[in-house]
Structures are given as C-alpha cells and as structure tokens.
C-alpha cells in the first residue's frame, strides 16, 4: 500500500497520462485498504480473513463530454491504456452542460489538518482472536443465551488520494478497528437473535470485548416470547439503534442531485418549518478520530462543520459541483468518490442534538405505545416521504416498558414525523449518524 504522498503522486501521474491522451481536464482517485479479521464460534476459530487491494479511478472531460473508468492494475502500461480508453469513451459520450471539475477558486490546498484518523497499532491475529473470544464468552454468559452465531474482531488501514488537472492534490490515511457479537436466546421455535458491534478509528477507543458481548446477550434475551400489538395510531419511540435511519432519510432527500431531478420529498421545502424550532442537526467532518472525518471532499473542496438543520429548518442542500451547477448554487463540500464514476454526496459525523428529558420521562405519559429496537425492509419512498417499515421492539404500557413485541409495521409520512419528533437526552457517539431516542406521536401501527 502506498503512503498518502505516494498515492497523491500516483494520482497526479495518471492525470498527466490522461492529458497526454487528449483530455481537456481530468481528476483521479487512488484508494487502497488492508484488513485482517478473525471470527470465532462456540470457542473455536471459524474464519481468518486477510484482504488487501488498490484501485484507481479516472474521470476525463472533452469539452462538456465526460467518462469515468477504473482499474486495479496500476502498472504503467495499464494506466496508459486506462487513460486512452477513458478519452475515447468521453469523445463518444453525449454533452452534459453541467459536467466539469469543481470551481478552481474553491479548491483547498495543503497542508491539510490532521484529525488523528490513523492508529499505527496493529493488534495482530492472536489479539484479534482473543478479543472475539472474550466478546462471545461474555454473551454466552448471559442467562437465557443458548447459542452463538459467532463473534469477530478486525483491524484495517486505508489510504485515499485525489488529484485534479486544475491544481488540487492531497491524500490521507485512516484506520479502523471493530468487534461484533451475535447470539441466540431461547429454545426451539421461541429462539431470538440479537447482536452488538462497535467500530472506531483507534483500538484504544473500543469498549471492552466483554461489554460488547454482554450487551449482545442481554438484547437477545430481552426479545424472548414476543407478543403482538394491536393495530391503530399510537406513539412510536425509536431506540438509538434505529433512530439514526430517520435522519438518514432526511440527508438523502437533501442531496442536490435529488433536488435537481425533482425526486425528493424536500422539494420546495428549504425554508419550511419541518421540525420543532429546538431541533438542530449538526455535521462535523473535523471531529478528531471521527469515523467520517476527512480534510477535503471528493472534488478537492474543503470540508467544514455546519448545521444541516437549524431552528427546525433545513439550511441548504448537499451538493457536488454538477448538481450545484444545475441548481445555480455553489458546491457544498459534500462530494464523495468511490472507485469510479461521477461523485455522489456524503456527510461526515452527523448528530442530532439531544433533548432535555430522559427516556423514562419521554415515555412517562404514553398509555399505549411501542419502543422500536429493530427495523426490517426498505419501505421508504424518497419522492413522497411515505414511510412503512417492519419492526420489532418493546411494548409501552402506562409509561413503562412491558415486554417484547414483534411482527408489526410502523407507518407514516416523514414530513409529518419530523414535525412531531421529540428527542430524549441519551445521545450516543459511535455511529455515522448519532441520534438519541426519538418519540413520534400519531404513527400508524399495523399489528394483530
């Protein structure tokens, strides 16, 4: 794997090859990763996985025509062929009036801030196996847990670099560490499964494997002998394990490309009061050791902290350069690049600010409702905002948790859900989108 500087130089070299092949402009990305993972089940080693890979993506422009191509063969001859093929593809492509690199005057430049994304510690296979075994042992020790689907521990490093033909060049390195445990509780047809996982940049930031495993076991036992819910409108409370998905639907609808295509339920809603004025959704791609932190976006623009929702209103769209041109605005620094193709958009380290009440107080006045801990299916319409998901969780009766329930559906419309949303004060800080427990009144539940 190349160093960030070597990766940046390799991307710049590919740009030069593209220009020599006839491209008017180009950008190139280099991405590489290496990881090692160990899985155990019932105390025995079940799987050892080691993966390494490098990839380069090239996007070229001939006037308003563009093409993208990628390769994992990084030999000089292969990169020459890659550049020539990309230019030939671009010459045959239709014109796109919005195609082009990011505005040169908006590019950021080195030196880039260091957000402590790289942990040089390599735990090694034995330490990973020990961590996975400890997590599984802790889960199996919970009374009521009867079997294991396995526990795993992994560690990896990655490098990303971007270069453009109009003056940007930069790269950075990151690391990842994770532990996961999944177990079964109960016997026969009454078995229930649940899991727990954590992912961090630095190994020292992981909770203990025993803590991760014990929570997996506790969650599985809590799901035993689920009952049924009646059908009808009632308050629905979303656990932090699933509440981030609701904000994820909002973020998807804020994509500039969705707005430009008029395929977002937020169309014409930028200045509308969507949430209670107390609601604030914050993005900070500069969080030290953040799993979504980055110094620049996929087009070479600076990333920056911002409030995506302020005073209950969306503050703007998430735009790469193409969608910004379509909308007549400036790109927002949210461009994201994969191994090939045009940029998409992504956000970094998002959290919904917590409310001022505990979960107990949030549900205290609910005569009949449900706390959702698991969502199933993908029943969300990004154009209309209609929301319908299969679910499992815990019944709420007279303000108290009253046992597990399963095989029901929760439904509503995201705009109406946003307007009724009330957060608790139990914000957790280890997911890509961190959201506390949410209460949404008036949702429709389809049970028995």
UniProtKB/TrEMBL annotation:
Residues 26-90 form the Metalloprotease TldD/E N-terminal domain. Residues 119-224 form the Metalloprotease TldD/E central domain. One of its GO terms (cellular component) is cytosol. One of its GO terms (molecular function) is metallopeptidase activity. Residues 231-447 form the Metalloprotease TldD/E C-terminal domain. Residues 281-305 are annotated as: Disordered. InterPro entries: Metalloprtase-TldD/E_C, Metalloprtase-TldD/E_cen_dom, Metalloprtase-TldD/E_N, PmbA, TldD/PmbA_N, TldD/PmbA_sf. SUPFAM superfamilies: Putative modulator of DNA gyrase, PmbA/TldD (SSF111283). Belongs to the peptidase U62 family. This is PmbA protein. It comes from Novosphingobium chloroacetimidivorans.
């Amino acid at each position: 794997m190349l160093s960030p500087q070597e990766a940046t130089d390799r991307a710049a070299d590919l740009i030069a090859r593209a220009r020599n092949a006839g491209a008017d402009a180009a950008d190139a990305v280099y991405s590489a990763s290496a990881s090692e993972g160990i899985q155990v089940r019932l105390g025995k080693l079940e799987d050892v996985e080691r993966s390494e890979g490098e990839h380069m993506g090239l996007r070229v422009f001939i006037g308003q025509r563009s093409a993208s191509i990628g390769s994992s063969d990084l030999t000089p001859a292969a990169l020459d062929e890659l550049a020539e093929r990309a230019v030939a593809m671009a010459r045959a492509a239709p014109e796109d009036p919005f195609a082009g690199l990011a505005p040169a005057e908006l590019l950021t430049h080195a030196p880039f801030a260091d957000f402590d994304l790289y942990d040089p510690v390599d735990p090694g296979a034995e330490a990973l196996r020990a961590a996975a075994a400890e997590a599984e042992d802790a889960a199996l020790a919970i009374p009521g847990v009867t079997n294991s689907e396995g526990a795993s521990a992994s560690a990896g490093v990655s490098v990303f670099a971007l270069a453009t033909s109009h003056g940007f060049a930069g790269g950075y390195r990151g690391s990842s560490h994770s532990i996961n445990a999944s177990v079964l509780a109960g016997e026969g047809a009454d078995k229930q499964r649940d899991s727990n996982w954590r992912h961090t940049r630095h190994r020292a930031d992981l909770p203990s494997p025993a803590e991760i495993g014990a929570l997996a076991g506790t969650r599985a036992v809590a799901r035993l002998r689920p009952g049924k819910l009646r059908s009808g409108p009632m308050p629905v409370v979303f656990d932090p394990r699933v509440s981030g998905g609701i904000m994820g639907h909002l973020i998807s609808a804020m994509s500039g490309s969705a707005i430009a295509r008029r395929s977002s339920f937020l169309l014409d809603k930028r200045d509308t009061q969507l949430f209670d004025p107390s609601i604030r959704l914050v993005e900070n791609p500069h969080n030290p050791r953040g799993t979504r932190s980055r110094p620049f976006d996929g087009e070479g623009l600076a990333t920056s902290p911002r409030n995506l929702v302020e005073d209950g209103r969306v503050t703007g769209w998430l735009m790469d350069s193409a969608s910004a041109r379509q909308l007549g605005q400036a790109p927002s620094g949210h461009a994201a690049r994969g191994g090939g193709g045009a940029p998409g958009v992504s956000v970094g380290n998002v959290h919904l600010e917590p409310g001022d009440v505990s979960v107990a107080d949030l549900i205290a006045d609910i005569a009949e409702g449900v706390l959702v801990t698991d969502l199933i299916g993908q029943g969300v319409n990004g154009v209309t905002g209609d929301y319908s998901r299969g679910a499992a969780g815990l019944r709420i009766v007279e303000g108290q948790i009253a046992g597990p329930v399963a095989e029901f559906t929760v439904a509503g419309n995201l705009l109406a859900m946003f307007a009724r949303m009330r957060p608790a004060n139990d914000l957790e800080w280890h997911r890509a989108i961190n959201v506390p427990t949410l209460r949404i009144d008036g949702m429709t539940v389809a049970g028995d």
